[in-house]
Design brief:
Blueprint: H1 3-10, E1 39-46, H2 53-67, E2 75-79, H3 91-99, E3 107-114, E4 117-118, E5 122-125, E6 130-132, H4 134-145, E7 150-155, H5 160-163, E8 173-177, H6 196-204, H7 211-229, E9 237-240
Parallel strand pairs: 1-2, 1-3, 3-7, 7-8
Antiparallel strand pairs: 4-5, 5-6, 8-9
């Protein structure tokens, strides 16, 4: 992360947070078992445009989901630099896209957000010059996906704040994060096609694989890349709700 970005993030203390308050979903007894076929609905967000790695990651992930059989109409994409106003990664568009994840029993929710991170606060949303607080994400997921199998992936520095938030780690939810809450992650550079975590996630994501195995593969991949560069470990995090501990991907 360059000095310009560090300065940019340092000024966020006075930025307005995306509104919302914490809310815990009431788990539904009808939450699908891991071996139940699901229709997946996905929201993919490249929340910063400071480097192309975030857009690249979201574009590649969309292609992977399509190859797994997820319907194009069931994949929403928001980007900080989108040309169409309705596709810009703003809070208003995120709220609208979240409502599109709603569905009947047997429908799974998948939300992937990649960006820079602000320690102690969350991932940076460039279009709003704000951060995405864990409490806001918890409320949004409770409203759209409460009681249904949900996978939330937060890719960025200090993103372990999301796995550390009890309102997000409900029994029907898996939360993955690129780094421990007090650690940066790596690869946010124009020299890279993807961030380290995004690239490892793309390589590890396999249709029908257990999410527990995917999370372990991603963490191992990230650790190997960091050791090769002699970087301090970012220590990717994961939280698995007991209702979705055996859930498989797509």
């Amino acid at each position: 992360m360059g000095p310009t970005m560090m300065l940019r993030l340092a000024t966020l203390a006075a930025a307005a947070l995306l509104s919302g308050c914490a809310g815990r979903a009431v788990p539904s007894p009808s939450v699908a078992a891991a071996d139940t076929p699901l229709r997946w609905k996905a929201l993919l967000v490249a929340a910063d445009d400071a480097e192309p790695v975030f857009d690249n990651g979201v574009d590649a992930l969309r292609r992977s989901l399509l190859s797994f059989g997820v319907a194009p109409a069931d994949i929403a994409v928001l980007k900080a630099d989108a040309r169409q106003p309705g596709a810009v990664a703003t809070k208003a568009n995120f709220d609208r896209a979240m409502t599109g994840l709603a569905g009947p029993a047997g429908t799974g929710c998948f939300v992937y957000i990649t960006s820079h991170g602000v320690e102690g606060r969350g991932l940076f949303a460039a279009a709003d010059d704000a951060v995405i607080p864990p409490a806001y994400l918890a409320k949004a997921l409770d409203g759209a996906c409460g009681g249904r199998p949900t996978v939330l992936v937060t890719s960025g520095c200090y993103s372990g704040i999301y796995t550390d938030t009890p309102a997000l780690t409900t029994p029907d939810r898996i939360v993955l994060a690129a780094a421990r809450a007090d650690q940066p992650s790596f690869g946010c550079s124009a020299d890279n096609r993807y961030t380290y975590y995004d690239e490892c996630f793309l390589d590890s994501l396999k249709r029908g694989a257990a999410w527990t195995a995917i999370a372990a593969d991603v963490a191992g991949c990230v650790a190997r890349r960091e050791r090769a560069k002699r970087f301090e470990p970012s220590r990717p995090q994961s939280a698995f709700g007991h209702d979705v501990a055996r859930l498989t991907a797509f």
